[in-house]
Amino acid sequence: MNNNIFPCLWYDGDAKESAEFYCNVFSGKITADTPVVMNIEVFGQKIMLLNGGPQFKKNASVSFMVICETEDEVQKYWDKLLVDGMALMPLDSYSWSKKYGWVQDKYGVTWQIFLGEKASEQKIVPTLMFIHGNNGKAKEAMELYTHIFPNSKIGKILKYGDGSEGHPIAEPEENIQHAHFEIDGYSFFCMDNSYDHQFDFNEGISMVVMTDDQEQTDKYWNSLTSDGGRESMCGWLKDKFGFSWQIVPKRLIELMGDSDQMKAQKVVQAIMKMQKIIIQDLEDAYNS
């Protein structure tokens, strides 16, 4: 499993409280604890929690599938996540799983708790919902992402027309009801949905990609922003589907984590002026 790719959840001041909550729910541990960034590890997977401010709210366009081995395990996570949260789909038996439910927790993160087989060794799988103008583009997105990143593949695809499962809205037969893909060994699920949800992809949930060097940084940045994507600040971008990525050189983390606070601060100030992160400019700021 690739821990150079991981989700980032956006918070308005309550990242630490949320980190402690998830560590309790999933028996995880906090691996970084700063006023702005909290990192946690659950089931060997990294999740970043960012105190970014009130601008963005997390929503169900990106949910997290938790694949469980027993009904008791499903029940345990469900009961904990439901405290002060709300059920989006009740915990029940469905055609695709003997025990499944979709819950929004008290921090606005949505989880699909699922009894079933894992598609990879990954226990928690980000699930992207292609809605509104993106509806019908899940396959195109999978093809784009697996083309950009190495060690990538498209796994099993279930289309609405495959006819195994009832659905409340008549979806186009070619659209994807559920599919699995991997980018550089990290698993995702995705789906098309024609329901008129009151939300869409935003910066509330993004994917972080840690890069080895400038060449890799440039490749991912240029590939994801081309053809209708948008550059944002500090290594953030939106791809053509409006999904947010952070392309972050590993060297940045090293420099920002330097024990010399003054030098680390210069690096932070340099990033604030950048869109795509330029490693040499960081080194120059650090050494200035």
Key descriptive features of the protein:
2,3-Dihydroxybiphenyl 1,2-Dioxygenase, domain 1; 7 helices; alpha+beta; eight-stranded mixed β-sheet; 16 strands; 2 domains; 26% helix; 288 residues
Tell me what you see in this structure.
It is a single chain. With 288 residues, this protein is an alpha+beta fold. The protein has two domains: 5-192, 2,3-Dihydroxybiphenyl 1,2-Dioxygenase, domain 1; 212-287, 2,3-Dihydroxybiphenyl 1,2-Dioxygenase, domain 1 (Roll). It contains seven helices and 16 strands. The strands form two sheets. An eight-stranded mixed beta sheet has the order 2-3-4-1-13-16-15-14. An eight-stranded mixed beta sheet has the order 6-7-8-5-9-12-11-10, with helices on one face. Strand 3 and strand 4 (45-51) form a beta hairpin. Helix 6 (261-272) runs antiparallel to helix 7 (279-287). The mean pLDDT is 95.
Instruction: Determine the CATH topology of the largest domain.
Output: 2,3-Dihydroxybiphenyl 1,2-Dioxygenase, domain 1
The helix-and-strand class reads: alpha+beta
Strand order of the largest sheet: 2-3-4-1-13-16-15-14
* CATH architecture group name of the largest domain: Roll
Instruction: Please identify the top-level CATH class of the largest domain.
Output: Alpha Beta
Order of helices and strands: EHEEEEHEEEEHEEEEHEEEHHH
CATH superfamily of the largest domain: 2,3-Dihydroxybiphenyl 1,2-Dioxygenase, domain 1
